[in-house]
Amino acid sequence: MTGLKLRIGGLLYRISSREGFHVTISRLIEGFVIVLLVGAVATLVYMTGGLKFVYSHAMYLPIVLAGFRFGMLGGVLTGIMGGLALGPYMPLLVSPYEPQETHAWLYRMAFFALIGLVVGGISLIKSLQVDFLGNVLQEVSATFARTLRGFAKAIEAKDHYTIGHSERVACNAAILGMRLDMDDQDLQQLYWSGLLHDLGKLGVPEHILHKPGKLDPEELENVRQHSGIGDEILSRISPLFYSISDGVRHHHEKWDGTGYPDGLQEDQIPFYARVLAVCDVFDALTSERTYRGPLAPKEAANIIRKGAGTHMDPEVVEQFLMAYEARELVWTETKRPCNEPSEFDYGFIWDYYTNRYRDGGGAGWMRG
Ligand SMILES: [Fe+2]
User: How far is the C-alpha of 252 from the C-alpha of 219, rounded, in Å?
Assistant: First the structure.
């Protein structure tokens, strides 16, 4: 009795929650279709002259369907239902009337129930395997996320001037990505690309990174190699990181083709890199450097406005300026925490953050 109460309670709970409601309704519809199929097969058998003819085998269809959709219990119950539908009232021959023997329909019903049980069992094993693989995939994706975040920490440990820089670039890039209507997967990749855009600085000597004043040509060349080094590190880890590493490689390309490392121009520059370029420049200008103090955000935004169509993609700059005016962006002074995806490439985690952002009318997760 308690079990029945729990089941009814569970059913009511699922019906009352919106998602549960849809699931319950779709399960009810599926169950109804299976019952209809059993009835249809019984009618077909009767209309075609009785059990002596081949159509009774069509009863396997609803039994197999029920086994897959409702597991062992559903399979067995449908087997029994099918057995009864072709049971005592179904003649062997309709005309001239010839009834079937009792043991015949009982054996048939047991056989149908057994088929339902086996199919339900196979379906159960399959769903356990899918669950297991899902857990493994989730763990792998979380490990990827922790690894990438570890890289970001390593950059900061080496170049303390970049503390917070990568994260702010990643956050602002994701905000611009949303404005540019990127889908969730692209937003995630763009976020990671922003977080790791300076990964290659791990390969640049510290005395060059920390040198106050101007760099000589050789040192400059050394620093410029960081985008290629970052690309190489990431793309060697996994093909899953190719689009992230693409953004990393090209974040210093310029719209007019005067950037590095490949001198790409306009549409040749990967889109992630065009977004990152704007966010990188904005954050670099508003941050303190060895050779100058931070610029006011308004001043930095003006410099970016002037760079549209020469150094930066005009479309991205336009969205950047709108996001800046709407106070959606982060910079050193805002000190807003940036929430971050805890897994790699998992849409539902990202959905959580982006929905918070969108529901907040532009003042959600990025703003803390
Ligand atoms: Fe860079």
Answer: 17
Q: What phi-psi label fits residue 164: left (phi over 0), alpha (psi between -120 and 50 degrees) or beta? A: left
Task: Give, as residue ranges, everything with CB less than 5 Å from ion ligand 1.
Answer: 198
Report residue 2: phi and psi, to 5°: -60, -40
- pLDDT for res 365: 33
Residue keyed to tokens 């009864």: 84
Q: pLDDT higher for 167 or 246?
A: 246
CA 101 – ligand 1 centroid, Å: 84
Give the span between the Cα atoms of 235 and 199, in whole angstroms.
Answer: 12
Q: 3-state DSSP call for residue 312?
A: strand
Q: Which domains does the chain have, with CATH numbers?
A: 2-124 (no CATH), 141-367 (1.10.3210.10)
What are the φ and ψ backbone dihedral angles of 352, each rounded to 5 degrees?
A: -55, -50
Give the distance (Å) from ligand 1 centre to CA of residue 105: 77
Task: Check residue 349 and give its pLDDT.
Answer: 35
